């Protein structure tokens, strides 16, 4: 069902500074026009389960868990709240019987898709789902430990924010996985672990060993770590450091660049103290 009274996304974003009032579960809340409704709900402490939403990335609507019922006059439709934009008078219901039925079904599917994920198990249990009627996908060699729900967050953060494009969806249909090309090592990987920090199911495995960071899930890709010349700790992937420092203007001095954050702060503090005692 399409509601023609809803503005296009472009129109909404143009007026995004405008204050509007939206209605969630029968109560009015303030919002900015064009803001995503899931963001409004999170801000107001209203529970809508979600797995593929990340405020810093463009809305994607992959996990289908954040569905709400959008009501307009005597009509209603189920929509993903992470792609639904606020407008004045917009009314949604987050916990109607239909929504709860849909949520349970999706969680059952995820129990089959990611049977080893404790995050999925505990989220499903909160909605009373402890078993799945679907075929459980388990592969003892899965580099993502049978925990991936294919939400795409890792792929998007690697492309949209880091700009490295190291991983992508490969294969099709039930064989789809997230991986590096040919599941091998990828020299473009910066070892930044942005993918790790956004993964909702903690599926991505990495390990630091001496001067190497090993992205185990991404074809065992090895990334060289930078050693702090002061304390000797390996603290940052070399490629990442180069990329970040190249953007700092005016550039940091070479010895400051090479220090780990702790030694750098200590060094700056010592300089500040000696400068202030010289002034006295
Ligand atoms: S590895 Fe994690 S972030 Fe990437 S698609 Fe799978 S569940 Fe999503
Ligand atoms: S958070 Fe909306 S579809 Fe995943």
From TrEMBL:
One of its GO terms (molecular function) is oxidoreductase activity. GO terms for cellular component: membrane. Keywords: 4Fe-4S, Iron, Iron-sulfur, Metal-binding, Repeat. Residues 18-98 form the 2Fe-2S ferredoxin-type domain. GO terms for biological process: ATP synthesis coupled electron transport. The keyword Translocase does not apply. It holds the Pfam family Fer4_7. Residues 136-172, 180-209 form the 4Fe-4S ferredoxin-type domain. This is 2Fe-2S iron-sulfur cluster-binding protein. It comes from Methanoplanus endosymbiosus.
């Amino acid at each position: 069902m399409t509601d023609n009274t809803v503005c296009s996304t472009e129109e909404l974003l143009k007026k995004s500074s405008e204050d509007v009032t939206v209605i969630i579960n029968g109560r009015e809340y303030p919002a900015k026009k064009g803001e995503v409704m899931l963001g409004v709900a999170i801000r107001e402490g209203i529970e809508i389960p979600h797995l593929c939403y990340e405020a810093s990335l463009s809305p994607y609507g992959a996990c289908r868990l954040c569905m709400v019922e959008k009501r307009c006059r005597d009509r209603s439709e189920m929509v993903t709240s992470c792609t639904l934009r606020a407008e004045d008078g917009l009314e949604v219901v987050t916990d109607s019987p239909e929504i709860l039925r849909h949520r349970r079904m999706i969680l059952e599917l995820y129990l089959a898709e990611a049977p080893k994920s404790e995050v999925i198990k505990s989220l499903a249990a909160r909605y009373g789902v402890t078993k799945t009627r679907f075929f459980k996908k388990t592969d003892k060699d899965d580099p993502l430990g049978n925990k991936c729900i294919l939400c795409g967050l890792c792929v998007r953060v690697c492309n949209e924010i880091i700009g490295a494009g190291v991983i992508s969806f490969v294969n099709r249909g039930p064989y789809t996985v997230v991986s590096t090309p040919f599941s091998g090592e990828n020299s473009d990987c910066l070892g930044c672990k942005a993918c790790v920090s956004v993964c909702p199911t903690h599926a991505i495995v990495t390990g630091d060993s001496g001067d190497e960071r090993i992205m185990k899930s991404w074809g065992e890709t090895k990334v060289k770590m930078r050693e702090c010349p002061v304390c000797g700790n390996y603290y940052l992937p070399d490629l990442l450091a180069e990329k970040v420092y190249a953007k700092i203007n005016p550039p940091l001095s070479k010895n400051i660049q090479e220090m780990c954050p702790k030694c750098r702060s200590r060094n700056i503090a010592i300089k500040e103290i000696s400068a202030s005692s010289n002034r006295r």
